[in-house]
Amino acid sequence: MNSDWHGISYHGRLRVSGTRLMDENGRDVVLHGMSSHGMQWYPHFARLQGIQTTKTMGANVFRIAMYTDEGGYLTKKNIADDVIKAVDDTLALDMYAIIDWHILHDNNPMEHIREAQDFFEMMSGRYANEKGVIYEICNEPNGPEVTWSRCVKPYAERVIPVIRRHAPEALILVGCPTWSQDVDICAEDPLDCSNIMYTLHFYAGTHGDELREKCIKALGMGAPIFASEWGTSAADGNGGVFLRESDVWLDFLSRNGISWCNWSLADRDETSAALRPGAPDGGWTSEHLSESGRYVFSKFADK
Ligand code: DCB
Fold first, then answer.
1. Which range marks the domain in which residue 197 is found?
2. What is the C-alpha separation between 74 and 68, in angstroms, rounded?
3. How far apart (Å, rounded) are the C-alpha atoms in residues 138 and 201?
4. Second label for 44, Cα 20 to 30 Å away, from 12, 37, 55, 154?
């Protein structure tokens, strides 16, 4: 870890100013780090030892992806305990923690809005005074019927106030239609809320100039953007890895001061996974890291 590393004790509470993320003292902030894979499958990498290893390489944020579907929270409520442990471990490392309500095949966030409200009521109550907790209220809305105006925006308007009751100043990340790609559509019809950012998700082997154009358009309309999930692979989490395409993306994010989390901190046999199959819970050296992991870990400390 070099002397440029800054976490919660340095930056304090984050706030959105225009399209930028700023810290408690008005300095620009850019967060870089990993996202967990599904907490129902890979909770052991989302603990102190593993998160600390990413910090050693320069990460100052960790995203905890709590799937709702696919054996996640909706059918196994005690996954919330693993999420809490992961948040506590992340905060103990002076790193920002993102609590991600990871919808995916349950395409429409409205489908389980009651459960989402209860979950965020519980989490924001628990972390009401924590400066380092960031709430991501819907990972990737998707499907032709799941529009911003009819589904995602009304969902956000009903979940954000639940969090704000306990944590009035917390940073909240809002997913966009089409797997969190339609940032421009959100920007045209923005939420009337402060301290929120829209999420831009991309996979370097699938998404390129066209998605960057949408992002530029959204920023131009004043929408703040956080890249809370991106991968070096194609959009299915596999294929590649696409490192030259990733370079173009990281350069783009850096020029625009956009924070990011990489998918994913897992040892699954897929190219987006940062760890090779059978990797230990932390303390990884290059032999434990996949090609993607070696690449991404070398980028945490970049400006
Ligand atoms: C997103 C999801 C994330 C998913 C990755 C890669 O989905 F947020 O959960 O992760 O991107 O696809 C993958 C894992 C696999 C797992 C699968 C299902 O890497 O191990 O089997 O989730 O749980 C996206 C993102 C973009 C697009 C499609 C998907 N897209 N998608 O642009 O078409 O269908 O999952």
1. 8-299
2. 5
3. 12
4. 12
The tokens of 116 are what?
């989402």
**Amino acid letter at 107?**
N
Would residue 3 count as lying in a domain?
A: no
- Residue pair 294/287 in contact by the 8 Å Cβ criterion: no
**24: domain CATH number?**
3.20.20.80
Mutation test of ligand 1: which of 236, 242, 272, 275 has the most ligand atoms closer than 8 Å to its C-beta? Answer: 236
pLDDT digit string (tens) for the chain, length 303 residues: 567 899 999 999 999 999 999 999 999 999 999 999 999 999 999 999 999 999 999 999 999 999 999 999 999 999 999 999 999 999 999 999 999 999 999 999 999 999 999 999 999 999 999 999 999 999 999 999 999 999 999 999 999 999 999 999 999 999 999 999 999 999 999 999 999 999 999 999 999 999 999 999 999 999 999 999 999 999 999 999 999 999 999 999 999 999 999 999 999 999 999 999 999 999 999 999 999 999 999 999 998
